Amino acid sequence: MAAHAVIFTFPAQGNASPMLKLAELLSLANIHITFLNTESIHHRFLRHSPDLDRLARLPCFRFRTIPDGLPEDHPRPILDFLNLLRSLNFSSREPYKEILAPASGIDPDGWPQVTCVIADGTLSLAYEVPAELGLPVIFFRTSSACSFWAYHCVPLLLRSGELPFPEGADMDQLVQNVPGMETILRRRDLPGFCVRARTADDPALQFVARSTADVAQAQALLFNTMESLEGPTLSLITRSVHKNTYAVGPLHALLTFFSNEKNSANLWEQDHASIAWLDAQPRRSVVYVSFGSVAVVSKEQLVEFWNGLVNSGYRFLWVVRKDLLGDAADGAEVVGEVERGKVVGWAPQEEVLAHPAVGCFLTHSGWNSTLESLAVGVPMVCWPFFADQLINSRFVEKVWGVGLDMKDVCRREVVERMVREVMEGEKAEEMRRAAGKMAEEVRRSVGEEGSSRREFTRLVEDIKAMSVQVLKKKI
């Protein structure tokens, strides 16, 4: 009896990237995979991600798309995700249902029927339709477990009166109603929607409360993390949210044990000349700078970062996306030229971070970027932009000791000081040792007897068992 899982990603690079890696891993485990994305973002991936052609040729792998209901020329800003979700719910339900259960009863490719759905945990549509069809759903939360736990506690924060914050609140005050993190999280470490909310019925707060509550309806909950990194939080989630929780990460590191091929989803063309430039630089001499695929900065902030990096005296490789300044201008035209620096539009990040010339990562603290840095032992300077990034950056400094948290600050002297502190300061060696130990933990976790490898094996076995039960019901 063949297992066939539909993997439905939220249409954003940060979400699609780990889900694509999971999809390949499951395909290599002889599970048929239909990777589902919206038409708009899938077409962008096709333009800049040659890996997708290789994946489409795998015997148990295929791509499918559904409309998102927005006009073709709509910019689809991720920060307007509530509007995107409303459009998806209205326009994509029937096309999604047709993929899960064709009206003809026959798959157009002759594939076995769908027996399981792995859905991005922020998509209510991804759960509701298979639930109507009697298909089991596994929720994949592509953020960190620690940020998910804080999200899960939003209703408790509302009931206790800790949210919304009062006007003029002390942002350094510790948050008391995120169990297990009472000595870690400050008000300023919670996601921006918590900071901006002025009433308990704020749409973003209510969305988070609903989406975290939906998790209990799924068969299981999946995280791209490892036990040795987020063990205490995973234990809280298993006891309080879902008893069947998998930690199978970092997925990009796990995938290297099963495939020598690259697997990435990019919205921009990668500049591989950055690797040749790094080859010419001394060991640990370069600060790699990237704020991910979503963050937007002002021209003033860009100039502050530029001056801080130049004044630090270190070489730097900086990813400046064409839309880093939003619609204001091309950021690469705003920053100047300097002998020690190289600016690119997009870079092969995993390869860059693993390069011996890189000594520090100035990052937005997205979860994928954080894991990629941890996996190769590169300490970080964190400047989070939104959502889970604010919690990730706090854990990088306060809990894991592998970097510094620069949130809420964007001044050249602070950029210069923090870069110097991570590269050469009194605590630099301490952070480097902590990052090195974390890299060892990653290798151990995804290795033969590692916790993430065992969890992935359990996941495969459970998907196949779910599939048997689904097929028996159909007989």
Please tell me about this protein's structure:
The chain is of the alpha/beta class. The protein folds into 2 domains: 4-147 and 200-257 and 448-474, 3-Layer(aba) Sandwich (Rossmann fold), CATH 3.40.50; 273-443, Glycogen Phosphorylase B (Rossmann fold). 46% of the residues lie in helices and 13% in strands. It contains 21 helices and 13 strands. The chain has helices spanning 13-28, 39-48, 51-56, 81-91, 93-100, 124-133, 145-152, 154-160, 192-196, 203-214, 227-240, 251-255, 273-279, 299-312, 331-334, 349-353, 367-375, 389-399, 412-423, 428-446, 451-474, and strands at 4-8, 32-38, 61-66, 116-120, 137-141, 220-223, 245-247, 286-290, 315-319, 341-344, 358-363, 380-382, 403-405. A 7-stranded parallel beta sheet has the order 3-2-1-4-5-6-7, sandwiched between helices. Strand 8, helix 14 and strand 9 (315-319) form a beta-alpha-beta unit. Helix 5 packs across helix 6 (124-133) and helix 14 (299-312) crosses helix 19. The N and C termini lie close together (12 Å). The relative contact order is 0.12. The model has no long low-confidence stretch (mean pLDDT 90). Its EC number is 2.4.1.-. Keywords: Glycosyltransferase, Transferase.
